[in-house]
Design a protein that fits this description.
The structure holds 2 protein chains of 2 kinds.
Chain A (H helix, E strand, L loop, with lengths): L1 H8 L5 H8 L4 H24 L9 H11 L12 H12 L3 H21 L3 H17 L6 H13 L1 H4 L5 H8 E2 L2 E2 L25
Chain B lengths: L1 H21 L6 H32 L1
The chains are: A mainly alpha, B mainly alpha.
Chain lengths: 206, 61
């Protein structure tokens, strides 16, 4: 009964949405968005890895950023609007978590950049990038974060085709999804009837 | 032959990562972006060729 209720309640996406976010004809557009996003992340991460204040000095730059973000000025609004997020950053600051997080952020940005550029697990990379943008914005840093966040969300919506001109062209059919295992996880199993849609990375049969 | 082509495909994508890292310090958008885009397209074409030769060739045999 529950299954029937879900099937009845399932709303179909309009054709333009399916075309924009799920058709390989749109892969060149998403490749441009993905490459720009990836290059921005790679540049940001690379400057942190090779520059001063992050890896070489136990996260001094991150510590200074967190201190500025958690400070409450005598006049005007504080950089962080949400008390829970200020408490969260203060907790990490008090426990010197900036030493470890400097590595996580610097190398995370490099990996997100490289994953987006090569188109490897694009959806996960865009999600990781959007999560970092979201946290930077919560900490009161606007900079390029709003634009990169919107781009990351769009790439995330187009995860099936955004990496088609990239490694996902081979990775997605190989790995598949939890609801549709790829070739790597179906080796040695008896052949099953193919579902409608033809699988990831392949156009749907007419 | 099959493994050499597979290695070529893997190397092409490793090359994309290499070009991207080389361009990480370039702030000029045109100089930085286009080599990366070119490398991605070249690697994708090589990958398609390798896929065609290795897997589709096997299927025909």
């Amino acid at each position: 009964m529950l299954e029937r209720m879900f099937i009845r309640g399932q709303l179909r996406d309009p054709g333009w949405y399916q075309f924009l976010f799920g058709n390989v004809a749109m892969a060149p557009l998403w490749t441009l968005a993905r490459l720009y996003l990836g290059w921005q992340w790679l540049q940001a991460g690379w400057h942190k890895v090779t520059g001063d204040g992050w890896i070489d000095s136990d996260g001094a730059s991150l510590r200074a950023f967190w201190e500025r973000a958690t400070a409450i000025p005598e006049r005007g609004a504080p950089p962080i609007r949400y008390d829970w997020y200020r408490d969260f950053l203060s907790y990490m600051l008090d426990h010197r978590w900036y030493e470890g997080f400097a590595y996580v952020i610097a190398f995370g940005e490099v990996f997100v950049g490289l994953a987006l550029i090569t188109g490897a697990l694009t959806g996960f990379a865009a999600l990781a990038g959007a999560t970092m943008n979201f946290n930077f914005m919560l900490a009161g840093s606007a900079s390029t974060n709003p634009v990169l966040f919107i781009l990351a969300v769009l790439v995330l919506l187009a995860w099936k085709v955004a990496g088609f001109i990239g490694l996902d062209r081979w990775l997605l059919p190989l790995l598949g999804t939890p609801w549709q295992p790829g070739r790597l996880f179906s080796l040695g199993l008896p052949p099953r009837r193919r579902r409608r849609g033809g699988g990831l990375g392949r156009p749907a049969p007419a | 032959m099959k493994y050499a082509l597979l290695a070529l495909g893997v190397l092409a994508w490793a090359g994309v990562a290499g070009v991207a890292v080389l361009m990480a310090d370039v702030d000029e958008p045109v100089l930085g972006f286009f080599p990366i885009a070119g490398a991605v397209i070249a690697a994708w074409v090589i990958g398609e060729y390798v896929t065609e030769v290795i897997w589709k060739g096997d299927r025909r045999a």
